[in-house]
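During the second half of the funding period, the structural biology subgroup turned its attention to how the target accommodates small molecules. The most pressing case was adenosine-5'-triphosphate, which had performed well in the primary screen but for which no bound structure existed. We therefore specified the complex as follows and requested a full 3D prediction, including the ligand pose.
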Amino acid sequence: MNLIWFLKELNKYIAPYRWLAILLIARGLFEAAFESSIRMSLKFIIDAAIIPQNYRLLGLILLLLGAGAIVFVFIGLVGDFWAARFNISVINNIRHSMFSHLQTLSMEFFGRRSAGDIINCFSADTEQVENSLSYGFILVLELASILFSAIFMFSLNWQLGLISCIGLTLCVLAPAQIGQTATEQNYKLRDKQGEIANAIQENIISQSVIKLFGLQSRTINHFNSNLRQLKKVYVKAKFSSYLVQRIPTLVFVFVQLAVICIGAVMTYKNMITVGTLASFQIFLVGLNLNILSFTFSLPYLIEGIAGMQRINILLAEITQIQDAPDAIELPHFSREISFNNVTFNYSFERKGINQLSLTIKKGDFVVFVGHSGAGKSTIVNLLTRFYDPDQGSILFDDIDLRSCTQKSLREQIGLVSQEVILFNTSIRENIRMGYLEATDEEVETAAKNAEIHDFILTLPQGYDTPVGDRGGQLSGGQRQRIALARALVRNPAILILDEATSALDPATEVEIMNTIEHLTKERTVIMITHRIAQALRANRIFVLENGQIVASGRHADLLEEKGLYATLWQQSHPANTNLTVQTHS
Ligand code: ATP
């Protein structure tokens, strides 16, 4: 059952290379037929050429065998080249499907599935499928050899042929039952290996925390416990795979014994010739090798099925956020964004925002403040459509976000998120990721606006300096400014800054805030910040608590209300509670 499912799944990826697959199967059939012919030839060499002293026939048989051997070698070499091409083509096809599918999945998926496990799907699971492809062809070859041998053995003597066939059928069918269990156990093994890959990845990323907090022995203990669990699953999976391998060989020993005993008695009673008996023995020796190779290949097939099951689960992930079939292109933002009674929870227990309504006008410089976990970033997640509201609607110029394409929405947004993500390439390319068509001049203008241009020029390779893995060769503030430049080069209608200046020194922060303030003349700026002083520049401040807006207005008005905003202000400016400020208008 599993095998049929596996073949059907594989067929989707093999389809473009069907001809190559047919050629490889044909090669297998030819090799099997040739091997059986060699085994069969012994009967004719003994009975028709050696015993009657027919040297012409002997010469002819040997010539045919020699010619066949040359073709056999040639087809074998060409076949190996085809097999290499075929395997990587099919596996790349699977990897391409997974990678493309991954790009369509929503943030909910990436929050749920661990990166290490996903990487494991791309590496180890596809490797298992690749092995099953290579060994699958060997299985075909061996099965064909067994089949041809059975036909030849029947033609030699039907009684001995029948005994051999019954035995060989048992050899092929015996592993089927245990094969199902072996597949399940191997699937569990693949899952466990995915968990371990994830643990290693997490450990590498978190080394600074581990060292600083002295967590080495805790992580080693945790890893050891993972290894112990792996051992349990591994033993079960491998033992069942070995059984699948072992059973046919055991059955075959009895088949071999039966054929030798009965064959010897039949030869003794002149029921068959010596050549027939010798040929049968050659067939049995060859079949022994075929069965060994067949059973050696079976576990790879089983592991391949388990790998394919995991790949299929990844591919079956449904994209939570999808463009509606009749989705429209969102026109350029011209008036206002409004949240109408929006409720959104990440899950039943993880609350996000509740019955939230607000309006942001074009050209506004809006700041969201509130305690940690109040729901500020959740608003950004909804605005960028990383998630859709559970209730209520978000409108851009009266158009519901759910009715427009995600691309046309995101093209209008420049986002600098709390967690800066840089790619392992040059500074220039990192900035250009914001707008792939940006010229070098546009990249540099964005860098100047983000106050990072002068620093870049001090680097020996300037804009071509690599930033390292996840931007690891830069400071936190430098990373933030490059991320800001990346958002600015996009020239977005709406600029969203989620704690985008948290890692900057006060002087650079003031410079950047001046730039941002200047930018608000042409675009809408939405800022999330814990640095409440930044709210002074806003022409609208929203104060969030427990996923709801508890106050909104300008700095001076909110201070007078003496609510949460006044408390937050007081906490961050204990000496200047009554500060009068010039706000942006
Ligand atoms: P901070 O100022 O600390 O960044 P915030 O106001 O931006 O906080 P949010 O990130 O919006 O808060 O989180 C609001 C609530 O949603 C929190 O209780 C948080 O634990 C939860 N939350 C946020 N992201 C997720 C997620 N991906 N999955 C589940 N829960 C989440």
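Two results from this model are relevant to the next phase. Residues 152 and 481 are 77 Å apart (CA to CA). The two ends are 70 Å apart (CA to CA).
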